[in-house]
């Protein structure tokens, strides 16, 4: 990955950074202190066996999941967290709402708003959260739909779309917010195998544009080909970290090699 | 078939329809507002509020409407403090007592419908809204409530129909709605069959109109459930 964007911003502060991020559900410790940072233009695939905490980690980054301890910085700004009964709490709702408009998320189950058409889904947050004008947004939303190949389906409701179409619409919904970071939480795991490709293609294009992306995925080939960095989570800790070449070459980390070989056996 | 008699009965019973509709309409309106309060209390983080809401639902859902009407109309008059209060001009009127009983009764059922509809809102869609920077009233107004409304509308349609029929119980405390007029016609004509058949037909016509209206609203709201894959 050598996009111009990455080269220009390589020395700025991290886009997202965590220090000692912990999360437990009851007595089960899912994240055991994660120190992590992502820079502008990086495409980071977060891999790990199920139960390794990778989705939880991603969801902690936009506070859909509240960490139990640790610190979170977004765009160099520390996110205000205060102590709560069994986890941290959001100290300043407005700060989090503001940062979330810049950290868009794509979900495993698409989570389009079922009562709105595709076009309305795209326009919702820009108009009602960011307060941008409908006319301006409409144009951008249409352009975005054209980009993900859904112009013909713009007036359809989510229930009328295939899974692949829904996920492409969800990606378009994330993009019209003009986010600085995109979080993908297993974006192809709920799709029929023949629909995975169309979603991965859109994501590959985004990576080629130099977008900053954090992707929790089980698509090994995609992670190897598209990522600039791999983060391998193993039982709630960072098991290995490095470029795809370093990790997928083998011999870098035995746990990772084991994970990959289990995967290849299918 | 004695058509002139039937037509005469229908004419007299129809004169009670406005009152029947008033009872149902006012009861639903007041009950709807109360239901929103009760449902909010039931979902609140403050335990005593939750208990009150729970008790409200159990009491008014668990006792017959007829008993509630009797209690309010005959029972409250026994309390001297109430007889001296500003509420008495209302509470001594059968009309207001009927509306109060209907409102309290429907509020319990409607609060449950609201609770169920809110629970049926997919967590993922709420999370997607949060992830896009929505919270508080904006999140509820744009996402949670519209989706809940679509889940609750069919059940609420049934509740409206139940209310239209429940107004007939107001007849026992001398409110001159359709059923009350029926009684009086029978006591002067002794022709129970004809009178009640006409009364039943009038209720059927009213509830049919309600069904139709609900179906129209539902179709408008639930356009997104029409599976039209191409």
Automatic annotation (TrEMBL), chain A:
Q: Which InterPro entries match?
A: AAA+_ATPase (IPR003593), ABC_ATPase_HisP-typ (IPR030679), ABC_transporter-like_ATP-bd (IPR003439), ABC_transporter-like_CS (IPR017871), MetN_ABC_transporter-like (IPR050086), P-loop_NTPase (IPR027417)
Q: What's the superkingdom here?
A: Bacteria
Coiled-coil-forming residues are none
Location of the protein in the cell = Cell membrane
Q: What is its main location?
A: membrane
Q: For this UniProt entry, which segments traverse the membrane?
A: none
Q: Does the keyword Cell membrane apply?
A: yes
Recorded GO CC terms: plasma membrane
Residues in ABC transporter domain copies: 16-260
Which PROSITE patterns does UniProt cross-reference here? ABC_TRANSPORTER_1, ABC_TRANSPORTER_2
A Pfam family that the UniProt record links to this protein = ABC_tran
Alphabetically sorted, this entry's keywords are:
ATP-binding, Cell membrane, Membrane, Nucleotide-binding, Transport
Any one Gene Ontology MF annotation carried by this entry is: ABC-type amino acid transporter activity
Q: Which CDD domains match?
A: ABC_HisP_GlnQ
How does the entry describe its membrane topology?
Peripheral membrane protein
Q: Which family does the record claim for this protein?
A: Belongs to the ABC transporter superfamily.
Under the heading PANTHER family, the entry gives: AMINO ACID IMPORT ATP-BINDING PROTEIN, L-CYSTINE IMPORT ATP-BINDING PROTEIN TCYN
The entry's protein name is: ATP-binding cassette domain-containing protein
Q: Which organism is it from?
A: Paenirhodobacter populi
UniProtKB/TrEMBL annotation, chain B:
GO BP, sorted A to Z: amino acid transport
- Give one Pfam family, short name only: BPD_transp_1
Question: Where does this protein chiefly localize?
Answer: membrane
Query: Any stretches that span the bilayer, and where are they?
Result: 20-39, 153-175, 195-217
Membrane topology term reads: Multi-pass membrane protein
Q: Which CDD domains match?
A: TM_PBP2
The yes or no answer to whether the keyword Repressor is present is: no
- Gene3D superfamilies associated with the record: MetI-like
Cellular-component GO terms for this entry: ATP-binding cassette (ABC) transporter complex
Subcellular location, record wording? Cell inner membrane; Cell membrane
* UniProt domain ABC transmembrane type-1: residue ranges: 17-214
**Which UniProt key words apply to this protein?**
Cell inner membrane, Cell membrane, Membrane, Transmembrane, Transmembrane helix, Transport
**MF terms (GO), sorted A to Z:** transmembrane transporter activity
Q: Which family does it belong to?
A: Belongs to the binding-protein-dependent transport system permease family. HisMQ subfamily.
Name-wise, this protein is ABC transporter permease subunit
